[in-house]
Design a protein that fits this description.
homodimer, 380 residues, Aspartate Aminotransferase, domain 2, 2 domains, 14 strands, globular, disordered N terminus
Chain lengths: 380, 380
């Protein structure tokens, strides 16, 4: 056998030690509160240790507060936001099911793609990227299509910066006897979601946006009606890892082993959620809106145009049109190299057309808005 | 709207602060090296930040060293070991494919279950839990069954503590024109795996066992033949999150966005793998074997019987028969409460019959063996 010790000579310098202190103002991850990083240092214990089960219980209780729900089936999926999306779709869709996806952005298209992979007959209602849907058109689509039992849409489109109003659409969807699935990846903790108040049946998010934690967990909640759908499935969920009928037995009183939870990330999420609860949801939403307002004002003062009309702008994530003559990549590279600031380019249809600026969680602070505006003023 | 600040009054004490300093001697998670915990404190940067891409490159290079492979498609799945298992199965199985699963434990059964969920026609070759397979019986099963193109088995059965020899079986499987899928969750970094040397086509593991990191990532590697199978699929992988044809575009030179990687966990894995490389693979395997030997000797000196015959024992994970009259739960509870030591009970068929004792990664140390033996001596 080879002596693998010799390969140490070829080890590169340690790139973890070289990581720069970025100011994260992109679409996520956002800056992590130092309290959250400290929580990750808590000793790792077993995934069935009574001390860990208490942390899980705390996460569930705090998630219900942040989701504004009484839903029993409220937990965190052991993956990033995309895993949350897939858990929602995979568990609510069976082969042959008719599903209506309202899509006006990259992540709406992703939901449709996932639903197709899990065997749904997907109807897609589309709007130009950055616009929101009207309850009437959703109602008409529900009548025109093949009686879908599930309507999916993105509340906070990370690709466009639009915030979809949900109250009226929820009524229309429920009147048609369907369940409402909502992507709240870029809103939870930074803008009202209101699962019970609005009437959302399936809602998921990510830890690394407005909750101020590192990426790695996807909060998810199911209404009693969604649980009923889960329990009346004719076939098992194709994904074992994301099967909520198994996961709920681990997160519930049974504590049946399913997989080894990402222990340190659960500590991080617990601390991030405590910080949300301490600040208070409404105070936190107001902070996100106030700092977004500063940004919008400042960008317009620089002569820049915002992509989404003001009535439907998503406070945690702003899309600003790249001005004529500006070099998309060049500007972002200078922000990164000269100011350690990360903002992001456009995704999909909006690639090369907008920049995406996130003010989420610990990143939503007026001094960071000032810094970004000052940097842009010099670079542009 | 309700004022959610009020709910602060109902917040429980912080269970993260109350976490005890467990000595993790169960089947995983194992103790985390303090260097790994420090790495998790490195600043979170974006998942497409050039500084992060360097860390990803480092992880890939170090994973190839630990897997003992030149495979280009070597990466870490953004989930725990079960996600690695599912990524392996989901990408290698198409509906209608014949698959042979050799199962003599809980995780062999889990592979079969996943393959069925992804539409395979699964043949299962079974052995009593704790035994290993003979190349001849695998060869016979390959001839008897419906020409499977994939044979799956667990090298290191976490439920039984048996270590499956692979060299001969790999030859038999390849002679039949099939690919070999191997679960190395409880061996990688603690016992030889030798992907290229043995001829394993698909191999996965978990971060939280012999690699000494917290749970949250699943290393995975695919041979060129397995990549060819991936590229010649007739249908897309049902799971979007685990679709390797998309994931390889993020981990490869294209750097196409797929999902937001669990940044801090990737830092942790990078540091854990550096520690493995510094120690040297062979030295590390020898350490795991030496400490396991101390444990086996000590348990037998206490009059206890080991479940697996010595020739097929897995050094990182030992199963010991619960002696007549001993209270399974009561003994484990006393170890936890009086000594802060976690060992685990049996899983599945072996529940109530064995205890599972892990000596993995940072937990594989002679002083911890001494402590456990001393505690057991007092309690039993």
């Amino acid at each position: 056998m080879m002596v693998y010790n010799q390969s140490m000579n070829n080890l590169p310098d340690d790139p973890v030690l070289a990581l720069p202190p970025r100011i994260l103002l992109g679409p996520g991850p956002s800056l992590v509160d130092p309290r959250v990083q400290r929580a990750m240092l808590a000793p790792v214990v077993g995934h069935l240790d009574p001390a860990f089960l208490k942390v899980m219980d705390g996460v569930q209780q705090l998630l219900r507060l942040v989701f504004e729900t009484q839903n029993e089936l409220t937990l965190a999926i052991s993956g990033t936001g995309t895993a949350g999306m897939e858990a929602a779709v995979a568990n609510m869709v069976e082969p042959g099911d008719a599903v209506l996806v309202c899509s006006s952005g990259y992540f709406g298209e992703r939901i449709a793609e996932m639903a197709r992979r899990y065997g749904a007959r997907v109807e897609t209602l589309r709007r130009p990227w950055g616009q929101v849907f009207d309850p009437d058109e959703v109602s008409q689509a529900l009548q025109a299509t093949n009686r879908p039992r599930l309507v999916a849409l993105v509340q906070a489109e990370t690709s466009t910066g639009a915030l979809q109003p949900l109250e009226e659409i929820a009524r229309v969807v429920h009147a048609a006897g369907a369940l409402l699935l909502v992507d709240a990846v870029t809103s939870l903790g930074g803008a009202p979601v209101g699962v019970d108040r609005v009437g959302i049946d399936i809602c998921y998010s990510g830890s690394q946006k407005c909750l101020g934690c590192p990426p790695g967990l996807a909060p998810l909640t199911l209404s009693p009606a969604a649980v009923q759908k889960l329990e009346s499935r004719r076939s098992p969920v194709t994904s074992f890892y994301l099967d909520l009928s198994l996961l709920r037995r681990y997160w519930g009183p049974e504590r049946a082993y399913h997989h080894t939870a990402p222990i340190s990330m659960v500590y991080a999420l617990h601390e991030g959620l405590r910080i949300v609860a301490e600040e208070g949801l409404e105070v936190r939403w107001a902070r996100h809106l106030r700092n977004a307002g500063l940004l919008w004002q400042g960008l317009e003062a620089l002569g820049l145009e915002l992509h989404v009309e003001v009535a439907h702008r998503l406070p945690p994530l702003t899309t600003v049109c790249i001005p004529p003559g500006a070099d998309d990549l060049g500007v972002r590279r200078r922000l990164l190299d000269e100011y350690n600031i990360e903002i992001s380019g456009g995704l999909g249809e909006l690639k090369g057309k907008v920049w995406r600026i996130g003010l989420m969680g610990f990143s939503s602070r007026p001094e960071l808005v000032e810094l970004l505006l000052a940097a842009l003023r010099k670079i542009l």
